[in-house]
Amino acid sequence: MKLPAELDATARALLMELHRSTADAPEAQVSMYTIGEAIGLDRDDSAKAAEDLIASGLVEIRTLSGGIGLSEAGLAALGGDEDQETQTLRLGTDSPLDAPRCERVERILTRLKSELGQSGLDFEALAEIMADIRTVESQLASPRPKTAIVRECLVSLRDTAAESRQEEWRGLLDACIG
Q: What domains lie within the chain, and their CATH numbers?
């Protein structure tokens, strides 16, 4: 079985959109073409990406007309401790940020920074992302990190990720922002 990080960008984007649209329901199914259309793929590219996911063991075909759903392995790969934590540690509105939420935001920033080199983003998008990351890091270094500032930077990061088709990042940031 391949891990989501080992997939090509198109298959990973399709997997993340399937994950988002099925809300982790093991019995849920959605048309591979509908999922592909949501991320800007035509029918052929949707089918190819879905076939890659099926071959990797992360997705199961549920109907002959193209209905797919997350497999047990796919749910496990996408729904580990980090996703559980994301559900319970949303950013919220209380200020200053408490220690567990600061740690969660730090882990997200660390992940984003570690994946930037392989993201294929242009210089302008990279510069914008790094400026937002530095702003959040400076808030987290404060004895009283301001939730509103952190939230706005995470929203900006999410929007940049969405514009750049970084669906996995968008999903991660959406879950944290709440």
A: 4-78 (1.10.10.10), 81-177 (no CATH)
